[in-house]
């Protein structure tokens, strides 16, 4: 009578153990089956195969010639081409300077964006009016005042001269008759202003020259030319006069102060 409960308890434990082993074997079999399927899909030494995506739609391009109205010089056209190529790396862009235009081949979206970029960049160049005020002083007193004005655009070079040309003998030669002839070269003397503009940076050279009364020691026909040069590079500031510097007038006790004012003009 006491054996039946024991036998019953042992039987229950056996059934539970068998059920646990069966579940574990099913899980192992499932894992092995998953590994087998992955091995069948992936070759040795290669990454798992990713299902192929649907192919991208074909790239449809259109051609257009974008005409420039203002940026027709080499520098302006290079700037436009650089902007377009950086913004539209897949489009084909070529500059035609003889036509003042940009040749473009790209999608409809790229072409529309190119039109907007060209419209933004192809604007009339801004001109700048440079006014040089030159004041002469002697012993602290003003003895003269002069204003010189020039108009310049970015990337341009302007030169203004005021003075005279002095003949300087550079050599001599004899003709068949034995008569000696002189070779003469003329040199500019006086005030010379040179301005080079790059973006909003301005390089200015102010030069003052004048012949001297003293002999050169080379000969009576070889004068001495006195020279003072002021050379400076500065950023343009509109509406605010800028003192560039001061020059000594050769052969005198006078000084010449140079001031620059900048104003944008159309």
List keywords for this structure.
alpha+beta, disordered N terminus, about 270 residues, Alpha-Beta Plaits, 2 domains
Our count of domains comes out at 2
Distance, first to last CA = 121 Å
Mean pLDDT: 79
Please estimate the helix content.
25-40%
* Largest sheet descriptor: 4 strands, antiparallel
Broad shape? elongated
How many distinct beta strands?
Answer: 11
What is the string of helix and strand elements?
Answer: HEHEEHEEEEEEEE
Query: Order of strands across the widest beta sheet?
Result: 5-4-11-10
| Tally of DSSP helical segments | 3
Give the uncertain stretches in residue-range form: 1-18
The whole-angstrom Rg is: 44 Å
Strand content: over 45%
Q: Name the structural class.
A: alpha+beta
Explained architecture:
This protein is α+β, with helices and mostly antiparallel strands and 266 residues long. The relative contact order is 0.10. The chain is 25% helix and 47% strand. It is elongated. It has three helices and eleven strands, in the order αβαββαββββββββ. The chain has two domains: 62-121, Alpha-Beta Plaits, CATH 3.30.70; 127-172 and 179-265, no CATH class. Strand 4 and strand 5 form a beta hairpin. The protein has a four-stranded antiparallel beta sheet, with no helix packed on it.
